[in-house]
């Protein structure tokens, strides 16, 4: 029995935003795999919940004519991992989705909830950072689109204004087409664990040269983050073991890792350097580049 | 706050008033008597409370009872038919995939969903699909073997849906 003080259900986005406008204290619940666990542990007390799980329009994935991929906020991880559009166009996101939790959790947990929970360890987040994903937010007043990098404000804090609802995640064709990618989740167990570090790398290759590299990290700081210095260095360089090693080193400079019971700061920094290189090697091969030992 | 909901459990229609604070686990165990649904960690980590909702394995401890409206729920009590164990249950016995038995209902339900899916699974796939369950006795090897066996039996029989039972 959870300490739920009020419970409302919305069947449409309009209904949800109307509820939120009238009751700004409502906590939005979708899959429940974060909210209910926080209630169980007492991190959320006496909650009044607004369930949005019945909003059909926010479930599923579609590809627009211009190539933009739209992921409804209520799409489950199982669906993201299985979806033909994702598997054909952004396989790295399917890879990240299947790294999260275990099957029963993935069957109910939603990608929108994963983002709005604001955790640096969110398995979808580092990949969505590397994909330059944009978030569509809606309230009674209207809608706005925010790059995911600007949405995360701090640990457990996101730029969701009172009355706002995350409705869709947008990925532009220019950000995924002809890119290869790889996500590495480093954790003590292969399943049902929270990442010690998450590394997502996307890259585009042109004639033995790194045309573009984008690196998203989870648990390397209070929020997921990008490695701008390493990315700037990488652009236009020949693909050599030395370049890859240097990109790994430079990636560490963007991090603000801390020591927790899972791992020390030093260990996490070591992981960033090592795993960025490993992820990049796989991403290069998947982007049609050469295999670098 | 009470809410009236209707759903089926193992094919039997149920109409019941539930408290919005109640989990599906609590309603199934305490109000409807399906004690084959085990209460383990209560935070979605151990998988002991797994049930099938519209054929999909979920942790009933982190699933509010009100969400069950209109759903078809299957618990371990609904797996054997007319006193005969299912293919998955038989495979668990034959492979010795059981010790204390606490985790078994959850495993059997996830394995049943796998058998019913008609998909092919490698050993790695099987491990991944079972990863949401903890067993503290067996060391998992026999459980994986049992699931392999059930999937193999199903494949041999050509995947006729009735053969799952």
How would you summarize this macromolecular structure in one to three sentences?
The complex is a heterodimer of chains A (about 290) and B (about 160). Helix content of chain A is about 35%, strand content about 25%.
How would you describe the overall organization of this protein?
The complex is a heterodimer of chains A (293) and B (165). With 293 residues, chain A is of the alpha+beta class. Chain A is built from 13 helices and 14 strands. Chain A folds into three domains: 48 residues, Uridine Diphospho-n-acetylenolpyruvylglucosamine Reductase, domain 2; 119 residues, Uridine Diphospho-n-acetylenolpyruvylglucosamine Reductase, domain 3; 108 residues, CO dehydrogenase flavoprotein, C-terminal domain (Enolase-like, domain 1, 2-Layer Sandwich). In chain A, helix 12 crosses helix 13. The N and C termini of chain A lie far apart (54 Å). The model of chain A has no long low-confidence stretch (mean pLDDT 96). Chain B is 33% helix and 16% strand. The longest helix of chain B is centred in the last third of the chain and has 16 residues. The radius of gyration of chain B is 16 Å and the shape is globular. A five-stranded mixed β-sheet of chain B has the order 2-1-5-3-4, with helices on one face. The model of chain B has no long low-confidence stretch (mean pLDDT 95). The chains are: A alpha+beta (293), B alpha+beta (165).
